[in-house]
Each structure stands twice: as structure tokens, then as C-alpha cells.
Amino acid sequence: MNQQHLLEMNASVLHYFNGEGIHLHDRVRYKGVSGTVVFVTNGDTGEFAPGYEDYYGCEAGLMFCDDDGDLSFLREPDEELELIRHPTPAQD
To answer: What is the pTM of this model?
Structure first.
């Protein structure tokens, strides 16, 4: 397990509306705003980017950082959360 960006995660904890798993570093669009997932958790386990480890154990949901640096937290993904792409190995 890579402690630098992944605290613990063996399976996706949340899913996009289409059923695909949400993961750390996914590029997403929500209500027209693009960003990158910086953590995703079910409240017990999750994937956390460096600097976001303090959110470990928080309520279930995901946080993404938009391209302007603003953070947004979603408790439950809905049909407005779109996957743009999963990270390539070089981004992970």
C-alpha cells in the first residue's frame, strides 16, 4: 500500500450515477465545474490525496478540487457528477 496518497482502499467506496467506481485523482465535472477528486470515503475506508489525510474517518462522501482551487464536498454523488477520466498511472 502506497502511504503517500492511499491510506486504505481495496474496492471503490462510492459510485458515479452510471455505477462506475469513484477513485482518487479522477477528473470530474459537477454542475459544469471541472476538478479532481482529492478524497473519497465511505466513512470507514477511503482514498486520500496527500494533505487530505485529516479527513480520514469523516462522513461518507467525496471532495474534489476545482481548477480554480476551490473545494467541494458531496455526500452522495448524483447524476450531475460526471466522470471525465480516471487517472493514468503517471498521474496516480
So the answer is: 0.82
